[in-house]
Amino acid sequence: MNIIESTIETLEDPFGILSGERYEIFLTLEVDEEDELYSEHGIKLKLIFAIDQNESKIAQYDFIEGTTEEVLDFALEEEEEQQVKAHCEKLVAEL
Question: What are phi and psi of 92, to 5 degrees?
Fold first, then answer.
């Protein structure tokens, strides 16, 4: 799995309910054809990335098929989750 494109947007909390900062991030992924996650329509990963008291985490995520926007029922493997988290931390640092 390779991240080939990403977008990030700061999520606003107008009522101050959540502590820390939240970001909505979309990652376009390149997935090997032999991977069960592969789709000829492309795969995106939509996630909410949270930073609170200098601690960051992936709060929520969904795999989405590129053209149909269908949510797919897959989970990140531990190594993939670490890769995605590191990429998200880099995106936030560049804001």
Answer: -65, -40
Q: Which of 4, 23, 27 lies closest to 13 in space, CA to CA? A: 23
| DSSP tag of 12 | P
Q: Identify the three-state secondary structure at position 57.
A: strand
Listed in sequence order, the residues at least 6 apart from 81 whose beta carbon sits closer than 8 Å to its beta carbon are 58
Distance CA 28, CA 12 (A): 23
pLDDT in tens, 42-70: 999 999 999 998 899 999 999 999 999 99
- The angle at the Cα of 89, spanning 65 to 39, to the nearest 5 degrees, equals 15
pTM of the model: 0.91
